[in-house]
Specification:
heterodimer, A: alpha/beta, 10-stranded mixed β-sheet, 6-stranded parallel barrel, 34% strand, B: alpha/beta, Rossmann fold, 6-stranded mixed β-sheet, 4-stranded antiparallel β-sheet, 10 helices, binds adenosine-5'-triphosphate, binds magnesium ion, Fe-S cluster assembly protein SufB (chain A), Fe-S_cluster_assembly_SufBD (chain A)
Chain lengths: 489, 251
């Protein structure tokens, strides 16, 4: 059999039903009635014991959303979503908000154990040498627990669920929420503003280097339930924080919606490193089920010499629609985007970044590695925009696509918009097939086909993997291997 | 050790026959040299031995220790002890040589039901083997074969061979691109692996390599067949007279 033909045949036998986090947890839940209305929004706001101004903010967003149209410009296809056929709030019974670990339902703790996410601080501390990571665990619509809160508090760092922050730090919320992604930014962001349920809030005050990695694990468990994550991270002057989010969901036949908004604000000399390992359920081999991941993530380099870097490893979701962006407002500020997007089976990814250069001497760097297998479609869509006053702006973009088999697609759609002649922009893009020579060479050394492909792919994405916090780099490499399982026979 | 009987093989894509009724036996402990003009099918034979799927075997048998290997994929054949030092080693970007070696060694061990190597044990083995081939540590940290000079690539092949301890070594023009000193180092590396239960096939165009790796048998491959076999004297004859006579006699 010719080599190419063989790859094609192997891919034809594709089976991506290997999702390791597809279990469902039977747990008693507290749910809002199905559908979306002002009453439902009042219900959510009341459940979260929000102040009146927050409810008004939501209702305003909702009224705007009713006048908006769903965007269609992305290279993704899916049946029209009936927004009235969804639940907008689901919480494990008895958890109206995060509590201490002792009060968390043991059933839930077992879920996180199964997912490999440590929630018991003692256990983390007991694990000799393994570096400590503070975790906020969000289950459907609520945060169930946040670890290491006290220790972080000592350093002056606030790390809690956004629901708690709205009650406990209303001034910060009022000042920053919606200041990067306005409530009317886009269809899904506006929907999120109306119905967001939980997510994390991080505030690192002036001059503080956050003493540990922060992370949030999102889990969608309930059927027909949308998860509307809202996360807000603020680094004051000279502060530094590294944050990671991870996500999983049970295997279900019907699609589930995750529409998130993440806002980052970096003041003078501050740095935020935001990493994502996205592993939502991708759907089965026939393309049934899976998460619709419609996400708006944006960082504002508000201060001079500030820096925001997004690193993402996207392996899950049926559809991903996501463009983590940086507004480079401060002079000499810097934005980075490192991305690995793996699509297999029937997955569709339309992802990329926007780098908006407003300040002087701003710089940005984009490294995107797309890997498509099966019948998937993988699009990089990126924008680099240099505004009139952005003297001496620089951008470097590198987009590489790797194809496994020949029934998948890779597309690169860069938009470059320069309004200042001093800008320096470099753009490189390549598309290649996984080489039969490399595969044969590795196999000749005794490496089985799937491992050979995983090894070659991990080599292909190395530039991005090394941007991940050490603790997660190995995990991410494994995940890439797993998500390509079944891309050969 | 290796027995090839009436082997016919063609290019899968277009059906062109390259190997046309080839017979060859290589015993354990033996060093067999295969020589032959460009395009006669030497590299193709090495690929077919290691299971590359660009080629289809249409007739004949390949037996390794009495067992047919035709149904095995390249990784399975490797675990059974077949090693091919490539004429053109392939670059694997982003994968450090060390990492590649570790995966390969452990995968083969796994396939044979052996324990994985511990990291210190692995590092010790690599260091020892690399030192013998005068490969420096910096090279081991670089992605495999990427930007390696021709000679470095060939040395890296022999390093892998030394670490994987195969039972059948196939060296495809390992001497090409080597300077005199490197040729000696590589030949020493190959000779060090000589053992009564290991067979070696050396594909080469030049006597020069055979001065260092002394063959027990020499075979001339032409148009997909072995047209002449002999001992090391045959290689000297070819060096002096070229292939014309032998080809003429065979025709
Ligand atoms: N995959 C392939 N597609 C097309 N032709 C091929 C393929 N593989 C081998 N050939 C052809 O088969 C013949 C034998 O090639 P091979 O590489 O085995 O020769 P060789 O004896 O190793 O030559 P050299 O001494 O130049 O290395 C050549 O004519 C070559 O072009
Ligand atoms: Mg050859």
């Amino acid at each position: 059999m010719p080599a190419v033909q063989e790859t094609v045949d192997q891919v034809r036998r594709i089976d991506i039903d290997q999702y390791k986090y597809g279990f469902e947890t039977v747990i008693e839940v507290d749910k809002a009635p199905k559908g979306l209305s002002e009453d439902i929004i009042r219900f959510i706001s009341a459940k979260k014991q929000e102040p009146e101004w927050m409810l008004e903010w939501r209702l305003d967003a909702y009224r705007r959303w009713l006048t908006m149209e769903e965007p269609t410009w992305a290279r993704v296809e899916y049946p029209k979503i009936d927004f009235n056929d969804l639940y907008y709030y689901a919480a494990p019974k008895g958890t109206s908000g995060p509590t201490s670990i002792e009060d968390v339902d043991p059933e839930l703790l077992r879920v996180y154990e199964k997912l490999g996410i440590p929630l018991r601080e003692q256990e983390i501390l007991a694990g000799v040498k393994t570096s400590r990571v503070a975790v906020d665990a969000v289950f459907d619509s609520v945060s169930v627990v946040t670890t290491f809160k006290k220790e972080l508090q000592k350093a002056g760092v606030i790390f809690m669920s956004i629901s708690e922050a709205i009650r406990e730090h209303p001034d910060l919320i009022k000042q920053y929420l919606g200041s990067v992604v306005s409530t009317t930014d886009n269809y899904y962001a506006t929907l999120n503003a109306a119905v967001f349920t939980d997510g994390s809030f991080v505030f690192v005050p002036k001059g503080v280097r956050c003493p540990m990695e922060l992370s949030t694990y999102f889990r969608i468990n309930e059927k027909n339930t949308g998860q509307f994550e809202r996360t807000l991270i603020i680094a004051e002057e000279g502060a530094y924080v590294s944050y990671l989010e991870g996500c999983t969901a049970p295997q279900r036949d019907e699609n589930q919606l995750h529409a998130a908004v993440v806002e980052l604000v970096a003041l003078d000399d501050a740095e935020i490193k935001y990493s994502t390992v996205q592993n939502w359920y991708p759907g089965d081999a026939q393309g049934k089920g899976g998460i619709y991941n419609f996400v708006t993530k944006r960082g504002d380099c508000r201060g001079h010499r500030s820096k925001i870097s997004w690193t993402q490893v996207e392996t899950g979701s049926a559809i991903t629609w996501k463009y983590p962006s940086c507004i480079l407002r401060g002079d000499e500020s810097r934005g980075e985007f490192y991305s690995i997007a793996v699509s297999n089976g029937h997955q569709q990814i339309d992802s990329g970044t926007k780098m908006i250069h407003l300040g002087k001497n701003t710089s940005s760097r984009i490294i995107s590695k797309g890997i498509s297998a099966g019948k998937s479609n993988n699009t990089y869509r990126g924008q680099v925009s240099i505004h009139r006053r952005a003297e001496n702006a620089r951008n470097f973009t590198n987009c590489d696509s790797l194809l496994i088999g020949d029934r998948c697609g890779a597309h690169t759609v860069p938009y470059i918009d320069v309004k200042n002649a001093s800008a320096q922009i470099e753009h490189e893009a390549t598309t290649s097939k996984i080489s039969e020579d490399q595969k044969f060479y590795a196999m000749q050394r005794g490496i089985p086909e799937e491992e050979a492909i995983a090894l070659i792919v991990n080599g292909f994405v190395k530039d991005v993997i090394q941007e991940l916090p050490m603790e997660f780099a190995v995990e991410a490499q494994k995940l890439i291997g797993i998500s390509l399982e079944g891309s050969v026979g | 050790m290796l027995e090839i009987r009436n082997l016919h093989a063609r290019i899968a894509e277009d059906g062109t026959e390259i190997i046309r009724g080839l017979n060859l036996t290589v015993r354990a402990g033996e060093v067999a040299a295969i020589m032959g003009p460009n395009g006669s099918g030497k590299s193709t034979l090495s690929y077919i031995l290691s299971g590359r799927d660009d080629y289809e075997v249409t007739e004949g048998e390949i037996l390794l220790n009495g067992e047919s290997i035709l149904e095995l994929n390249p990784a399975e054949r490797a675990s059974k002890g077949i090693f091919l030092a490539f004429q053109y080693p392939v670059e694997i970007p982003g994968v450090a040589t060390m990492q590649f070696l570790k995966v390969a060694m452990n995968e083969q061990r796994k396939a044979r039901g052996e324990e994985e190597l511990t990291t210190p044990d692995f590092i010790r083995r690599v260091k020892e083997a690399a030192a013998k081939l005068q490969i420096d540590q910096a090279m081991l940290r670089r992605p495999l074969n990427v930007g390696f000079s021709g000679g470095e690539k060939k040395r890296a092949e022999i390093l892998q061979m030394a670490l994987l301890e195969p039972s059948l070594c196939v060296l495809d023009e390992t001497d090409s691109g080597l300077d005199i000193d490197a040729l000696k180092i590589v030949a020493d590396g190959v000779n060090a692996l000589k053992s009564p239960d290991r067979a070696t096939i050396v594909i080469t165009h030049y006597q020069r390599l055979l001065d260092y790796i002394i063959p027990d048998t020499v075979h001339v491959l032409y148009k997909g067949q072995i047209i002449r076999s002999g001992d090391k004297a045959l290689a000297h004859e070819l060096e002096a007279n070229g292939y014309a006579d032998i080809i003429g006699q065979a025709a």
